[in-house]
Amino acid sequence: MEPLSPPRSVRILPGEIETRVVTTRLLVPSPSQSNWSPFRRVAESIANRARQLPAHAHEREEILTYVTEGFAAYQLEGSEATPLERGSGRLLTVAGRVSHRVSPAKGGAIRWFNLVLGLPSGPASEPRLQTMNPEAPTIEEDTVSVRPIVGRHAPMESRAGLECQELRFPNEGTTFRRLGSERRSILYAMSGRGTVDQKDIEGGEAAFMEGLPGVAIHGGEGFSAILVSAPVSPSSVS
């Protein structure tokens, strides 16, 4: 017997502000959404030279770093630091254990979207680091500018099946985005106001979606968001 598809749902939740190390708007885990497999962490962070994130380790995870403002350096354990600027991305796939860090440039600040997914079990291997340059293309559709970050038409490919794109509405309009009934998706509103499946959303909030083949997103002028999705196993219930 084939497993049942998850129920259709769209929930709008606020990001929770956390300031213990750097200023972070935390989507997962948070008091509103403690766990949402396969997503282990979804957040937007801001750091400067006075308050920055120290090197930290990951084990059997895939980690996305995407810079939306500012300049920084990205360093993988055992490697030289490389520059990060607005529109740059890194996708780190860790089948064993490795440390990395993001350090703001001297005198500046950085704002970035960060996401962590668990990897399926398997043998340990060397970490794989993929890069996205600021020159990566944006696709101009009728009502929205779409910048593929991970997945289809994007410069980075996920072992965990992650897909990610940045959406910007230069003018008020509506777009329909394909998701997948067997995937969980999150749309994080970075700025402006819009709707997701006719539910209001504004900067700092996120739409948690599952069981949807696709979704209509309406944005006011200047609305910008990051849309991520990943496959979920039938056993995921949290």
Structural overview:
The chain has no helices and 19 strands. The chain is an all-beta fold and 238 residues long. It has 2 domains: 14-132, Jelly Rolls, CATH 2.60.120; 139-231, Sandwich (Jelly Rolls), CATH 2.60.120.10. The radius of gyration is 17 Å and the shape is globular.
What gyration radius follows from the Cα positions, in whole Å? 17 Å
Shape: globular
Mean pLDDT: 92
Helical run tally: 0
Architecture per CATH nomenclature, i.e. the level-2 architecture of the largest domain: Sandwich
Helical content stands at: under 10%
User: Pairing-aware structural class of the strands and helices?
Assistant: mainly beta
β-strand amount: over 45%
Write the layout of secondary structure elements.
Layout: E1 9-14, E2 16-18, E3 23-28, E4 39-48, E5 56-76, E6 82-85, E7 89-104, E8 109-118, E9 128-132, E10 139-140, E11 145-150, E12 163-168, E13 173-178, E14 183-191, E15 193-196, E16 199-202, E17 205-210, E18 214-219, E19 224-231
Antiparallel strand pairs: 1-17, 2-3, 3-4, 4-8, 5-6, 5-7, 5-8, 7-9, 10-11, 11-12, 12-19, 13-18, 14-17, 14-19, 15-16, 15-18
Question: Could you name the key traits of this structure?
Answer:
238 residues; mainly beta; Jelly Rolls; 2 domains; eight-stranded antiparallel beta sheet; seven-stranded antiparallel beta sheet; 58% strand; globular; disordered C terminus
Give a summary of the structure in a few sentences.
The protein is mostly beta strands and 238 residues long. Helices cover 0% and strands 58% of the residues. The strands form three sheets. Strands 2, 3, 4, 5, 6, 7, 8 and 9 form an eight-stranded antiparallel beta sheet that branches. A seven-stranded antiparallel beta sheet has the order 1-17-14-19-12-11-10, with no helix packed on it.
